[in-house]
Task: structure prediction
Amino acid sequence: MNLANLLESGMLVCFGFSWPINVVKAYRARTAKSTSLAFILLIITGYVAGICAKLNNHQYNYVLAVYFLNLVIVMTNVLVYFRNRALDKKREEVFMGSNNTTKANKVVYAHEEQIILADEKKEPSVSSMVLLGGTYDKEIPAAKINDEFELETDLVNTSTFALSLKNAKEYFKKYVASINMEGIILHLGEEDKDLFATNPTEFDNLYLSLLSTIKMVNKKCSLALVSLDNPRKDALVAEMNRHIEDIASSEQADFINLESATLWNPKATKASSDFARSMGLNVKKPIYDVAKIVYSYAAQNIAHDAGRLNIAG
Result:
C-alpha cells in the first residue's frame, strides 16, 4: 500500500468529515439564510480539480474513490440549499399574504395585565429588549429587573398565558410588532410538546416562520432563543432543545441554555458585562447578557409548582 496515497486519503476523510454533519444540520434547519452557495461551489470546484488530476495521471485507486465520495456529499449540500431556499420563499409569501390582512395597532404589556395603545405611525424614541414567552415568562417582573439591574435597554415583557408556536406569529404581529425593538428574547415550546412528539418538522417550521416574520418587521432586531427547562432530563424535551439550538444557529441567534440558569448569578453577570464594556470589550452581544440576567433571576425567584407558577418567597 502506497503511504502517500494513504496519507492523502486520510487528509480527504478529515477534510470531508464535517460535510455529512453540515447536510443534516442544514436539512433540519429548513432555511438557507446562513448557507453560502458560493463557498459550497468553491469546494466542489476543488474536488473536481483533484479528480481531474487523478484521471489525467491514470491514478485509478481508492484515493479517487474518496474524492468522488466527498464530491457527492458536498453536492448534496447544494440540493439541500435549494430545497431550503424554496422553503424560505414559501414562508415569505405566507407572511406577505397574512400581513396584508392585518396590522398591529396595540402593544400588550402582559406582566402588567393591561393594554397600552400605540400610534402605528410613530415609533417610540427608546428601543426596547422584548421578552416573548408563555405562562412562566409572564410572571417575570420586567420593571423590577430594569430598576434593580439598571439595564442599558428597556426590558418589556409581552409574554402571555399558554402561548404556543401555533399562535405566536399572529400574536407577535398583533401585539408586539409595533414596539421599537433592538432585540427579542423568545422562550417558546412549552405548549408544543405534543406537536413536537408527533411532528417535529412542523415544530421547526412554525419556529422558523416566526423568526422570519420578526426579521421582516425589524431587520436589525437581534434574537435570543431560550431552551425549555428540563430538570427531569426528559428525552423529548432534550430533543426539542437540540432543535431549538439548531434553529438558533441557523438564524444566527444567541442560544440560552436554561440548564445552567441556576448556576448563573444575575448581579455577577451584569457586573462582568459592564466591566468588559468599560474596557472596550464586547465579549457577548447585549441581548445575551440581558437574557442571562432575566433567566437567572427567574430561576432564583420564580418556581414551578404543580403546573402553576408562584413567585418564590
Notes: The chain has a mean pLDDT of 79.
